[in-house]
Structure formats: structure tokens, C-alpha cells
Design brief:
globular, Recoverin, domain 1, mainly alpha, 0% strand
Length: 205
């Protein structure tokens, strides 16, 4: 991944999707969480950003995918790109993120998608491949390109597994944001990593 960016969204593009007040709030909270080191650990990412809402394996894969490959820990720019993709990303961008989540693992650094990758990752997250997935993996030995995977997701509106449901369900993401906001005062500082403004974020296309 490039410096301060994912392969899907650059930091500059990601930052434009937040209100300035939100960026300042996230940056302040990031400094507090990292004690000024500029490096957000996986433990802090899971606990303070998503409040343990995500399964361990999914949170770990998301952290790996969104962290600059030249760094051991997540930077502020990495975090902004991650949050922008999840909460303000277009449907296509979130589907691209899904492909990366499935395709990126230790034994598969080329970013290609195989049946075993999907089966293993879903199993680790407490799920299993849906029957519909057989349609793009012939005999479970075909390598699937991002383009083909995105076409398949689009056909099923992104709702095929618990992971795709989580990332493609806009109402659920909206509700999750508000859950963080509503609980912030009584549950400590982790909720402040999310945007709170009642104004709409800048439009993006």
C-alpha cells in the first residue's frame, strides 16, 4: 500500500469525506490512544475504534489491509482511509475492500482470490461460504479476479455472508455509528474516534 493510503482510496480523497471538525476530533483522539507515538496497535484498533464489535479475525484482517505495508502499526492516515472506506465509501469501494479482506493473507501476498481463502477466512469468522459462491469458483480451484468478484457481489447486492452484510448494509453502518455516539459519554474515549457531527459529510462521487 502507498504511504498513508490503501490501494482503494488515498488519504487526500479520504480526508475530503469528513467534516473538518470530525478530522480534528479523530486526530486528537488518535494522539491520546497512541500516547503521541503515531502508531495505533491492533489492540487499540479493535477496542477503541470498533469497541469489540467485530470478530477477532475480521478486525485483524481489516487492520492488516488498511495498514501501510511499510509500517508495523496503523498510522493516523491509515485510520482515516479505513474509516472513510467503511462509513463513506461508495458501494464499489466497499466491494473492493471486501475483495481485499478475502484475498489478503499471509500465504497469498499476490492479492488473488481462491476458494480456500474464502472458506478459511469465513470459517475463522464463524461463517461458511454460501452456495451462491459456487457459481464463480468452478470445482473450487479457479482463481477469481477482483472484477469477477465485484460483479458477483453486485448481482447479490453484497448480501451473501455475515462479512459482506456488515460492510454493505448502509443502514447497519449508520446505526452502528449512532450507537457509538450515544454511548460515548458513559463508555470512555473509544467512541470519540467516530464522527459525531449531525451535519452531512462532504459529497463524494
Amino acid at each position: 500500500m502507498g504511504s498513508g493510503s490503501t490501494k482503494i482510496l488515498s488519504f487526500d480523497d479520504a480526508a475530503k469525506r469528513f467534516l473538518q471538525a470530525d478530522l480534528e476530533r479523530i486526530e486528537t483522539t488518535f494522539r491520546d490512544l497512541t500516547n503521541g507515538t503515531g502508531e495505533l496497535s491492533f489492540t487499540n484498533f479493535k477496542r477503541d475504534v470498533f469497541a469489540y464489535f467485530l470478530p477477532e479475525k475480521l478486525a485483524n484482517r481489516l487492520y492488516q489491509v488498511c495498514t501501510n505495508s511499510s509500517r508495523a502499526c496503523m498510522s493516523y492516515k491509515d485510520l482515516i482511509c479505513c474509516l472513510a472506506l467503511i462509513y463513506y465509501g461508495t458501494s464499489k469501494e466497499r466491494m473492493q475492500l471486501l475483495y481485499s479482506l478475502f484475498a489478503n493473507n499471509i500465504s497469498n501476498s499476490n492479492g488473488i482470490l481462491r476458494w480456500q481463502d474464502v472458506e478459511d477466512f469465513l470459517s475463522q469468522c464463524g461463517d461458511h461460504p454460501p452456495e451462491e459462491l459456487d457459481k464463480i469458483f468452478q470445482n473450487h480451484d479457479e482463481i477469481v479476479t477482483q472484477e469477477k468478484f465485484l460483479e458477483w457481489l453486485k448481482l447479490h447486492h453484497g448480501h451473501t455472508t455475515t462479512i459482506t452484510d456488515w460492510l454493505m448494509d448502509e443502514q447497519r453502518l449508520h446505526d452502528e455509528q449512532h450507537t457509538f455516539h450515544d454511548r460515548r459519554a458513559g463508555r470512555g474515549k473509544y467512541n470519540s474516534i467516530h464522527t459525531e457531527s449531525k451535519e452531512s459529510p462532504p459529497e463524494h462521487y
